Amino acid sequence: MPTLFITGANRGLGLGIAQILAGKGWYIHATCRDPAKADALQALSTAHPGKVTIHKLELLDFDGIARLGKMLHDSRIDVLLNNAGVMNMAQRRFDPKLTDQDFGHTDVEDWTKVFQVNVIAPMKMAEALVEPVARSERKVIVTTTSIMGSIELNTSGRWHHYRTSKAAVNQMMRGMAAELKPRGITCFPLHPGSVRTEMNSPKAELSIEESTTGIVKVLENATMKDSGKYMQWNGEEMAW
Fold first, then answer.
1. Is residue 238 part of a domain?
2. Cα three-residue angle 155-190-45, rounded to 5 degrees
3. Per DSSP, what are the bridge partners of residue 140?
4. Domain count of the fold of the chain
5. Concatenated DSSP letters of 130-148
6. Contacts of 71 by beta carbon, 8 Å cutoff, 6+ apart
7. Helical packing angle, 121-134 and 62-71, nearest 10°
8. Do residues 60 and 116 make contact, with C-beta atoms less than 8 angstroms apart?
9. Residue 89 domain boundaries
C-alpha cells in the first residue's frame, strides 16, 4: 500500500486526511509538536497497529527535520504533504477585525517566523525526504497553500505576513516542480478551501470532512500533468 508523510497531523485537516488514508490502508508517517497531547492521533495509531507512526517534530527545528530525513532515508514515501502552517505565531483564530498584519503594524519577528514555518520548513522537508519520495511509486510532493497566496485575487490587502508566505510557497513549489521533473516527481501547492477548522472562521464555507475528502481525491489522482499547477481541494486550478 502507498505511504503518506504528513506534517501537522494532530488536528484539523491534517488529522482528517490521515484518518481517511489510514482507513484506506495507507501507511502513515504523521508529525506533530507534542505527541503526548495528540489524543486523536494516538487513537488513530491504536486503531491501525503498525500502520500509523507518529513523529515528534517542531517545524522551526531544521536540524530535527534533517535528522528525521536521515532516519527515513531508506524508506518509500508516495506522498509528502506539507500540511502544517500558521497564520501568525500567536496561533490566534482568524478574525477579520485583527490588525496585527495590516500596513503600519509590521512585526518583523512574527513575519520572519511565519515565513520560516510556511516556506522554509516545507522546503527543508522536501529536501530531507526527496530520496524516499523518488523511490516510491507515486512520487508526489504537495504543500498546503491558501487563496490568500493568490496575487491576482488579492483585492483587499491586509494579512501581509500570511499572504506573502503563501505567495512565496506557491513560487517555491512551482520551482520545485521544474527542478524535480527529471526525477518524475509531481509537485504542486494545494488550497484546501475555506474550512471551518479550529483556527479559521466558524462561518467558513467547507466542513473538514468536505475539504479532506476532496484533498484525498486530489492526492490519490495526482500525476505529472498536475505538477507546477496551483491546485484546489476540488481538483480545480487557482489563479496565481
1. no
2. 135
3. 79, 186
4. 1
5. HHHHHTSSS-EEEEE--GG
6. none
7. 10
8. yes
9. 3-232
| 37: in domain | yes
26, part of any domain: yes
Q: What is the pLDDT of residue 202?
A: 61
* Dihedral over Cα of 148, 151, 153, 156: its sign: positive
Q: What is the pLDDT of residue 195?
A: 79
* Numbers of helices and strands, H then E, in the chain: 7, 7
Q: In which element (H, E) is residue 65 found? A: helix 62-71
Instruction: Give me the average pLDDT of each 10-residue run along the chain (240 residues).
Output: 97 96 98 96 97 97 98 97 81 60 81 95 98 98 95 84 95 98 98 74 78 98 98 96
Cα atoms found within 13 Å of the Cα of residue 236, Cβ hemisphere only? 5
Domain-located, residue 33? yes
Report the candidate in 221, 172, 204 with the shortest Cα–Cα distance to residue 13: 204
| Whole-angstrom distance, CA of residue 64 vs CA of residue 149 | 27
Name the residue type at position 15: L
pLDDT computed for residue 95 by the predictor: 59
E strands along the chain, which residues? 3-6, 27-32, 52-56, 79-82, 140-144, 186-191, 231-232
Look up residue 24 and give its amino acid.
Answer: K
Domain CATH for 103: 3.40.50.720
